[in-house]
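Model it.
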Amino acid sequence: REVWEALHADPAFAEVAGGLREFLERFGDRCPDELKLEAASYADSPEALVQALRACAAAGQAPAGSGEEMRAQAEALVRERLPAERSALFFAVVEQARQGVRERENNRFERTRAFGVMRRLFTAMGTWLAGAGALADPRDVFYLTTDELFAWLDGHAVSGDLRGLVAARRAEFDAYRLLPEPPHRLATRGPPALSTLEPVARLGAPPPAGVDGVLRGMGCCPGVVRAAVRVIRDPRQPGELAGRILVAEQTDPGWTLLFPAAAGVLVERGSILSHAALVARELGVPCVVGIPGLLDALRDGEEVEMDGATGIVRRVKEADSA
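Modeled.
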């Protein structure tokens, strides 16, 4: 926050500050977990934008290859190897796919903007309730359901003690954070609160991560990178990312600002059309997604070699000892 305030106070950075304000006006509703109203957007917490810019500046330069260059090379290869009639059909399908992806991402962005409006409305309600003494903190409003909030405002709530309800809800959420992560696919019997989570096996699931010293996923953007990994669970606190391989369970548009600083991207979940894959290809950053057990297999700072074309990730220590 001190850096953010200094950028706007120093006349030497007037152009930079203006560019940052313009960015926030257009994209300020984006943030990690942007479909959760309680998540702080870049407009709400601009210091998070400073963290992302710092990582990009530390990287020194953009990736060697760009998405456009890689696309041009791939298209030239297709034209060379496919007969003219099949090549024409192929590119017609490709253009339809590109248009579909563009529309999907545009719709997602409009959805994000709608959530931003609702976030501001509920934040204003929380501020008013805190000022009236009904809540201890404006952001406590996000511990209430919409039904509970509007029932209280309309005068027919089951309980008029919003502070007590928030305290109980907060205690529940604090307890949730201490629980182990649930399986990706699960089944319950009876009321979920009284049920034991039962993992559901996937048909044709890949072998557990690292059984043979190799992690396997879906290659989404070509390139071989050997570097230390940065395991990021909270994109608001990415740590030192420059020159490292970004490792995450999954990403959403709020992670996009971190990608230019990364030497490569590894993601536990996702497919060839997932957010991480699309952004990595656009920037030309080698990327592998859909790697089962990735976060359990790798330690922060560990050196690996990834191949964004084949989807193979080798742990360097194990590979060198073999």
